[in-house]
Design goal:
The protein is an alpha+beta fold. The protein is built from 4 helices and 7 strands; from the N terminus they run βααβββαβαββ. The longest helix has 16 residues, at 14-29. The chain is globular, with a radius of gyration of 14 Å.
Length: 145
């Protein structure tokens, strides 16, 4: 297994982040018509939010984007490249966001995902998240800290 190196994103990482997110969502895009474009606005995300990268060798294996809001740490996006899946990268990136949330004295973490992304929902549940609302195709999840 390749060692994973974590780093905060800088503007020069925007292209690699966009490519990683696009690859991570490519399979579900084939079956989910109303999935929003989650690759737009990456430079703005880097400027305004916390963006942590997981490098596997020279490749970007995963990315998490999160921000503090009203006592919660909100996970804006989490993506793991198909080539890097199965290495625990999603859990390790979420752990970094959780550590930041605890340091900021947040009471909980929040995220939204798509109702049809069953594998993603299962991963979050396995990592201690619970669903709080299903409205249309949006699923709200929370993790108490």
């Amino acid at each position: 297994m390749t060692a994973i190196r974590f780093a905060n994103a800088v503007p020069a990482d925007a292209r690699a982040i966009k490519d990683c997110i696009a690859a991570a969502y490519s399979k579900v895009r084939e079956s989910i018509d109303d999935l929003p474009d989650v690759t737009a606005g990456i430079p703005q995300e880097i400027a305004e939010n916390q963006v942590v990268l997981a490098w596997t060798g020279a490749d970007l294996g995963g990315v998490i984007i999160y921000a503090q809001s009203n006592g919660a740490m909100k996970v804006i996006n989490l993506a793991v490249s198909p080539k890097a899946q199965g290495q625990g990268i999603a859990g390790k990136l979420l752990k970094r966001a959780e550590d930041a949330a605890r340091q900021a004295e947040c009471t909980h973490m929040e995220l939204r995902t798509h109702r049809q992304m069953q594998d993603t929902r299962a991963i979050y549940a396995h990592l201690g998240w619970r669903e709080t609302e299903v409205a249309g195709n949006s699923v709200a999840m929370i993790k108490e800290l």
